[in-house]
Specification:
A hairpin with a 2-residue loop joins β1 and β2 (39-46). Strands 1, 2, 3, 4, 5, 6, 7, 8 and 9 form a 9-stranded mixed sheet that branches. With 340 residues, this protein is α/β, with parallel strands linked by helices. The radius of gyration is 22 Å and the shape is elongated. It is built from 11 helices and 9 strands. The protein starts with 29 loop residues before the first strand and ends with a helix. α2 (72-92) crosses α11 and α8 runs antiparallel to α10. The protein is 35% helix and 17% strand.
């Protein structure tokens, strides 16, 4: 059976450069990967030609992927790496020791969309002290603002920030926002830093004016964490995990040790298991002929027209979002204020 799906018809939402379709096929991509303990740091630079191919903006993209921040030591380790990467990017862009305006995008009343406002709560602002001549050495000129969402203010967020910049006159902007992912594995476990700007609301399909250097005329550093995922992604990933689980059980079904272990307690994802075409056909029947990408887009095609492709977030989001806001807010403090 040869079943083909035109992927151009579909728009599986993701804001992450690592998940962008076609990124792995780009020739001579400037990409670097570093692993520190269980934290992976991916750095990508897209030139104009490469960016145009995948419909992204030219610039630097830094992706920090981690497994857990619920533990204090893990959280502090991620915070340190985040601070180091942000510090390196600011130095690269020659923005160090310059005045900064930090914007917390999102809706404080919606937990998965509250990362920006909650991060701002942790920022040490100093511009008022500088204006009074009382700013101590070791502290940068920093101001912050939470613009709210256009649905509440009636004002386009990008326009509001533009007018604020005309008044405050910062040298550069840092924008913090919640993102969307096309993988369950990424939700609340990835921080993306980029100098290409940000599209507030784009993560949930609510396109608004971009917040970028092109619009604001000053450099824009965007920091985001995917906190939501499409329901279609959850269903398709579950099918993929079902296939892995089936292949795992099939491989070890005659192993005497398996009979002494409760199968539900085994993390089969840690095993190097190959899911063959026969495994897929045995388990899924006709659906076994489809690739993972085709299954993902087929489910999107089924759920989206009837309004069931909901945006989903983990049940522990209230707890996790506070940890993420601490990492980002205080991580920025460590970079901008050397006396912290």
């Amino acid at each position: 059976m040869n079943h083909e799906i035109d992927l151009k018809k579909y728009d599986i939402r993701t804001d992450l450069i690592d998940e962008t379709k076609g990124i792995d096929e780009i020739d001579k991509l400037d990409k670097n990967e570093q692993i520190i303990d269980d934290i992976t740091i991916n750095k990508i630079y897209l030139n104009k030609k490469q960016a145009r191919i995948i419909n992204k903006c030219e610039g630097n993209y830094i992706t920090i992927s981690f497994k857990d921040i619920t533990d204090y030591n893990n959280k502090e380790k991620v915070k340190e790496i985040f601070s180091n990467e942000l510090n390196s990017l600011l130095n690269k862009l020659n923005l160090f020791n310059k005045s900064c305006l930090i914007i917390g995008l999102g809706n404080i009343k919606s937990t998965p969309d509250s990362l920006g406002p909650l991060s701002i709560d942790n920022i040490i602002v100093t511009k008022h002290l500088y204006d009074l001549g009382e700013l101590e050495d070791g502290f940068n000129i920093v101001s912050s603002f939470i613009p709210g969402v256009t649905g509440s203010t009636g004002i386009e967020t990008s326009d509001l920030i533009k007018e604020l910049i005309n008044t405050v006159k910062p040298d550069y902007l840092i924008a913090i926002d919640s993102l969307a992912s096309s993988s369950i594995d990424r939700v609340n476990k990835t921080i993306q830093i980029t100098d290409t700007g940000i599209h507030p609301g784009s993560g949930v399909g609510n396109s608004r004016k971009e917040i970028s250097k092109n619009v604001l005329k000053i450099p824009v550093i965007a920091i985001g964490v995917p906190t939501v995922v499409d329901a279609s992604i959850i269903v398709s990933d579950t099918i993929k995990y079902m296939q892995r689980h089936y292949a795992f059980n099939k491989k070890y079904q005659n192993n005497p040790m398996s009979k002494l272990t409760v199968s539900s307690s085994i993390n089969y994802l840690k095993e190097d298991i190959e899911v063959t075409r026969d495994d897929k056909l045995e388990l899924m029947g006709l659906l076994g002929y489809f690739s993972n990408e085709e299954i993902k887009n087929l489910i999107f095609e089924v759920l989206n027209p009837i309004g069931y492709n909901l945006m989903v977030t983990p049940k522990e989001i209230d707890f996790i979002i506070e940890k993420l806001a601490d990492i980002i807010g205080n991580g920025i403090n460590h970079v901008l204020h050397k006396n912290v």
